[in-house]
Amino acid sequence: MAHIPFLDLRASYVALQADIDAAVERVLASGWYIQGPELAQFEQAFAAYCGADHCVGVASGLDALILSLRALDLKQGDEVIVPSHTFIATWLAVSAVGAVPIPVEPNPNSYNLDPDLIEAAVTPNTRAIIAVHLYGQPADLDPILTIAKKHNLAVVEDAAQAHGAEYKSRRIGAHGDIVCWSFYPGKNLGAMGDGGAITSNRADLAERVRSLGNYGSKKKYVNDEQGTNSRLDPLQAAVLAVKLKHLDAWTERRREIAGRYTHELRGVVTPHVPNWANPVWHLYVIRHPKRDDLMQQLADEGIQTLVHYPIAPHCQEAYRDLSYAKGDFPIAETLANDMLSLPIGPQMSDDHQTQVIETVNRLVDAL
């Protein structure tokens, strides 16, 4: 029986090896290793892909979030509404600018921020909402944007897992004030190392993020504010430009795999997709009350699965200072206890998927 990895990153490189190697060699031969034309070309291409006016490359997805919040002038004591169920980077960015993350529970069906619960969390100190497009499925943006407008709040989108996802037939990229992206190698559009970007239709925010990520400088050795060093390397930009041309085809393959999982799996809770969403299936997440047993038994049979995420942010030691306790956000805690991510990726074979489906169904029947 074949070993099935959760995601085969090497396979995605091998599929494009000639083009990626040529891009890397071109950058190495150019002598231009910071900023420059390779980065500018990728930023233009990715902005166009996302339907946004502006794109700025940065060093990571976390930096994209932090710099976006700084560009919006978030400061000590401000409050930012965040999902209670998300990767902790969403919270860490808020903390990094001195603001306070205010958790709001997800919709139990979509796993994304529940718009119906947001207004109850708004206070005079609230300055922004971070909407996460978790697992590659868009959050319900229209009601979030309506609430934000009513209360004069900024909307930051965490699209680290949502490259190419569509909300009401429009790609994620410029619905809110600013959208944050990760190009971590395992993402649907992944670099050969860390990388990130922001997209936006607001020129002021894009310009500010670019300056903040370049030591607070728009002109060499002239520093308008205290910035940092957070730039997307031309080497990574060149690799991403190659991969971007294949992203739609990869996404369609992910959708085929997800559709088959949903149709053929039994005895587990499969993802719910609202009729206005067109996910890109960064992750295919099932739920089962005996998640840990199922995960171990799948591993015993050579199938690698992962948990996204095993500890809700409010239960992490890193956020002990917020004085939350177990039970404060029961939906997030339940999801942390019963979710399991199955192997998925554009290079996954039909035979491997058949093995996963048959094994899950057989094991679940016996649990």
From TrEMBL:
It holds the Pfam family DegT_DnrJ_EryC1. The active site is at K187 (proton acceptor). The keyword NAD does not apply. The modification N6-(pyridoxal phosphate)lysine is found at K187. CDD domains: AHBA_syn (cd00616). The keyword Hydrolase does not apply. GO terms for molecular function: pyridoxal phosphate binding; transaminase activity. GO terms for biological process: polysaccharide biosynthetic process. InterPro entries: DegT/StrS_aminotransferase (IPR000653), PyrdxlP-dep_Trfase (IPR015424), PyrdxlP-dep_Trfase_major (IPR015421), PyrdxlP-dep_Trfase_small (IPR015422). Keywords: Plasmid, Pyridoxal phosphate. Belongs to the DegT/DnrJ/EryC1 family. This is Erythromycin biosynthesis sensory transduction protein eryC1. It comes from Tritonibacter mobilis F1926.
